[in-house]
Structures are given as C-alpha cells and as structure tokens.
Amino acid sequence: MLPADPGLAERVRARMTDEGAEATPGAVAAAVLAEPGAALLGEHTLRRVAGRLAGEMVGAGPLAPLLADPSVTDVLVNGGEVWVDRGTGGLRRVIGTLGDEAYVRRLAQRLASNAGRRLDDASPFADIRLPDGTRMHAVLPPVALRGPYLSLRTFRRHAFSVEELVNCGTVDPGAARLLRSVVAARLPFLVTGGTGTGKTTVLASLLSLVPAAERVVVVEDAAELRPAHPHVVSMQSRAANVEGAGEVSLRELVRQALRMRPDRLVVGECRGAEIVDLLGALNTGHEGGAATLHANSPADVPARLEALGLMGGVPRAALHAMVVSALRVVVHLHRAQSGQRELTEICVLSHHPDRHTAVVVTAWRRGSGPGPAAPDLDELLSRHGVEPPRPDGRWRFTPGKGWS
To answer: Which pTM was predicted?
Structure first.
C-alpha cells in the first residue's frame, strides 16, 4: 500500500533528482502521483502522503506540526527526545520519539544545507533560520554527548497588541498606559530580561503603537520583529558562508540604517559592539529608538551596556556618558516559575551624582505602583509634550511639582 511504503521517500527523492526538479511541495506531490498505483488512491490520501513527504524533504519533517502549533514557543530535541514549551507550566516532553540519532543528524544537516550553512564533524554547530522564520541552533556529536541537540524558537506571525498582553496578564493595565505615553513621547527605551521572558513580543507590541506616518527601521541578527505597523523596513545580518566570505555584521547594518531616513531606529537584540553605534545614533537626533538587552534585573543594565561598549573599544567613562545621554527608559520582564511572562518594572536611566556612571531607578513596579523615579519619568513625558497618565482621575500633573 502506497501510504505505508517505507521506500517511497527515497524513490520520490530519486525521481525529483533525475528530473532536476526543485524540492517544493508541488514537485513532491507530482512525484508521488507518478508512483505506480497512486491514481487508485483517493485525493485526501494523496494529499496526506504528499504533505508528509514534503515535510520530510523540504520542511522540518516530524517537527513541523509542533512548529505550526500557535501555543508552542520552543521545540528542543535531545537525540531522539522532543520537549516543547507552550509558555506556561515549563518544558514538557512530547510522547514518542523523533527517530534515531542518525535521522536527527540528517534532518539537522538538511536544514542547515538549505540555509547555506555547514554542519558536519568539522563544523559541529550552526545557527540557522528556517524559511518560516523559525530560529534553530544545532549541535552534533561528539560535541553533543547524547545528541544531536536542536533548539528551535518558533516564529510568531501575529504581533500581539498591548491590549492582548494586558488580557493575558503579561502587562499591568497601569503599565500599559505608561508605555503608551513613553512611545508617544518618543523616549528611547530598552526592553530587558532573561531568555524567554518575552522581550521581542513586548517590543513588537510597543512598535505597533508608533504613529503610521513614521518610518521604523529594524536591524536584527534573526528576523523576528513583525510589528503591526504600515512602514517597517527590516534588515537581517548574515553569517559568513562555508568559504568564510559574505559576512554582514549587525554593527554594519546599524550604520547603514542611519542612511535610510529612520524615524525610529530599532535593534532587535544588542549583544555586541553594535551598542556603540546605536548609542551614537540616539545621541545625534534619532529619537524614539529601541532595542532589547539580556539582563537579570534592571540594576544590571548599566554593567551589561558597559561590557558591550568595551567590546566596541569605548572607554568606561565615555560609555556611561553616552548611555545617560542616549537612553531614557528601561522596561524589564521576568518569567515566573509558572511560565507566565510578566512586565515587572519600568525604570528611568539617569546619572549617578557621585560615581559618574549610569544608574537605573524604578518609576513603576508591578504590584506596588509608582517608584522613586516616577516624578522624573513624568517630567520627561511632560517635557516631550505628552501628559503623563493619571493614576487617579482626581489628580492633576504639574510640571516641576508632579501629581497633586
């Protein structure tokens, strides 16, 4: 019976190779239809068989249904085991196995080859972007002791609105009003937090609030930001090919973006010397810029920025001066033990009077409301022509005096 034929995939692959056909879903379906006895099968069965083979030959194979599940954020493969993260409850193992280690290795190498990357004993690890936008990191044995190990971060085509983030509990309603004001005032900001806390999701939601008349230029290592905005220009860095040529760094893209008339310059994730170019841009009239940054807490942000700035050859004192002049707000996210992603603090970046360094002071904290820097943030908003959101309808904000 054709659907259960173990040699079907090899015959289809051989037929497509002989015909010089590109491995597309349509070409796979045509090759299946050319098999003896295929005409006797129903249309539904043929479509199912062709879809399965196309997944094995073109897409992510057996992992494709998991990557297509809108509730799944991460798919992790440890040898033949598969684990998924659906955003709540932590990682859960998927019943069954993906296959033996040889199959997982072939799958990883095929995906890497399709992306123009090398993955073999000489280059046992690779960062890969799948055609649907999914990010995959692969590590092969013997580096991966019980591997191969695959780590896939799914790509979300839907940009969550701020209202949706409020409804799912990620953003407090009071914080949402404050964030709207920050975007409207064109205050440059960082979205910070650990891995998997939802930094990219929150940043995309905030960029969706940018007025439609403004041009948003986004540079990223892996294209993930898809804000609901009519004028977004996205650029993605490129790694060197197997010959070691063709690299386009994130730092170079930031420089190019400055020549593209950006109203808002956005770096998807700062993790290297590109922070120097971003700070330089924000110090020279490019208001409203934004980026994400890995940090365990808001207090760690200045140290993280200092470390990245030193990679770019900027002295410590000069780097802190640039940070205080360029950045205004830090939006920090945390992931609870339950898996819930939460915006926990909104802070103001200011200058420490004694140490001459940047310091982060809380303006709003989840569960307790306004913090010590709340008046400073209100002043910033008012200075940029935006009335700070009122904590209570009976209160009124007065520049220089705060709420009264």
So the answer is: 0.78
Are 302 and 323 in contact by the 8 Å Cβ rule? The answer is yes
Domain termination site, one of 124, 153, 182: 153
Based on the domain organization, do 384 and 287 belong to the same domain?
A: yes
Check if the beta carbon of residue 166 is closer than 8 Å to that of residue 367.
no
Domain with 309 in it: what CATH number? 3.40.50.300
Of 153, 187, 214, the residue at which a domain comes to its end is 153
Q: Are residues 106 and 147 in the same domain?
A: yes
- Rounded Cα distance, 128 and 110, in Å: 11
Place of tokens 């009976």: 394
Q: Report the amino acid identity of residue 61.
A: G
* Residue found by looking up tokens 């307790």 in the block: 368
> For 226, which DSSP code?
-
Tokens of 78: 């440890």
Question: CA 102 → CA 57, 132, 142, 338, distances in Å?
Answer: 16, 25, 13, 35
Amino acid identity of 282?
L
CA-to-CA dists, residue 386 to 187, 203, 268, 280, 379, angstroms: 11, 20, 26, 25, 10
The widest CA-to-CA distance across the chain, in whole angstroms, is 84
Instruction: Give the model confidence (pLDDT) of 228-239 as tens digits.
Output: 999 999 999 987
Residues 392, 349 within the same domain: yes
C-alpha of 319 from chain center: 26
> How far apart are alpha carbons 400 and 91 in whole angstroms?
49
Q: Residues 84, 37: one domain?
A: no
d(CA 104, CA 108): 6
CA dihedral sign of residues 313, 279, 275, 234: negative
Based on the fold, state whether residues 180 and 106 are members of the same structural domain: no
Per-residue pLDDT tens digits for 153-212:
887 767 789 999 999 899 999 999 999 999 999 999 999 999 889 999 999 999 999 999
Domain count, the chain: 3
Q: From CA 30, how far away is CA 142, in angstroms rounded?
A: 39
Domain that holds residue 91: 62-153
Cβ atoms of 167 and 156 closer than 8 Å: no
Tokens standing for residue 29: 């379906």
Tally DSSP H helices, then E strands, for the chain.
13, 17
Beta-carbon contacts of 341 under 8 Å, excluding residues fewer than 6 positions away, are 87, 170, 196, 197, 198, 201, 333, 334, 335
φ, ψ of residue 246 in degrees (nearest 5):
90, 10
